[in-house]
Amino acid sequence: MKVLVIGAGGREHALAWKISQSKRVDTVFVAPGNAGTGLDAENVDISATDAARLTAFAKKNEVGLTVVGPEAPLAAGMVDAFQSEGLKVFGPTKAAAELEASKVFCKNLLRHADVPTADFQTFPDAESAKTYLNDREDVPVVVKADGLAAGKGVIVCRTRTDALEAVEAIAGRREFGEAGAKLVIEERLVGQEVSVLAITDGQALVTLPPAQDHKPAYDRDRGPNTGGMGAYCPTPAITAELLEKIEADVLVPTIHHMKRKRRPMSGVLYAGLMMTKQGPRVLEYNVRFGDPECQPLLMRLRSDIVDLLEYTADRRLEELPPLEWDPRPSVCVVMASDGYPGKYETGFVIRGLDDAAKMPNVKVFHSGTASIDGSVVNAGGRVLSVTALGDTISQAKLNAYRAVKAIRWQGAWCRKDISDKALEM
């Protein structure tokens, strides 16, 4: 069969790489892809948001399954467009994708579904949010843009002054565009932040091994939030017993409530959780594979991912045999362009990719790259997701950073402490 992956990041490269390993697949297309997907699959020069051209391409090329990677096309109704043409597609509809596309919608759903989360208030504009902050006790809060902001629309604030500035940045200056048209202000939770991803067809549920993302830009979780500077899997922060509790108290109630709201969830339900002393609390939901969590997860997956994706799209997930996983942990280190998550320059030639590719138990997934005149250049903020397996988390980290050391371009940088949290638990 032929499979189409929509997107251009490290998540899509990992999906295309894993899908291409299936004995059931002849051709993997990636639209629009990047320099890395061009090596492991066939790139198609169509924007990830161009539903008309993508559905036409899928029909013309007899694509048997389409996988939508990023949040933006999901929120815009890409799955609905494919389904209306009778095409098989993995991912949530536009109505279900609002779980990620609107933090106001998500927080209200969590409240009504009785899913544990931080106390919160929602606001339609900057002025009402500022009034709320000035009228309450000066305590740490988190200010969130309602809409999609590429993982950067969340500002953690220690003081009222910080929070007022965050409100002005998001809803006043609209630094994240229309994502800041509405706001959520919630209590700041303390604990380890973890990612639990599950696959669901709206009925059955398959929970994947828990991972831990590293959102802040710099070591020791300092600096501004990013789309993710690295991840590792599994995380010792989640025991088997705790994972069962998360399924029962978080994932299952959410899926049932979405069904009751006539927005049945299909695809990936990704819970961003804070492990507090009172138990797990939902920070947010995503409705697609995390980036960079997808990369270390798929490095460990031994089962045929096409079966998982197709059974979900066909609403037959309960028939899927248990997934098989490599027992070794994996670590993913994101290499970024100088200046990210702020302004950065692109077009610098990346060297050492071949050397890194030769290293055992290593895969370099491309996130923001392009191929120009036979050379691979940086074309985004997050550029590469260097991912490695190891017998222990320490060994996986060592393998990943050895590969990182082999790669260079002007201004390249990364966090040096990805997965260290696992050793501190």
From TrEMBL:
EC assignment:
6.3.4.13
| One GO biological process term | purine nucleobase biosynthetic process
InterPro entries attached here? ATP-grasp, ATP_grasp_subdomain_1, PreATP-grasp_dom_sf, PRibGlycinamid_synth_ATP-grasp, PRibGlycinamide_synth, PRibGlycinamide_synth_C-dom, PRibGlycinamide_synth_C_sf, PRibGlycinamide_synth_CS
The superkingdom of the source organism is: Bacteria
Could you say which protein family the record assigns here?
Belongs to the GARS family.
Matching entries from HAMAP family are given as: GARS
Q: What is the protein name stated in its UniProt record?
A: Phosphoribosylamine--glycine ligase
Underlying gene: purD
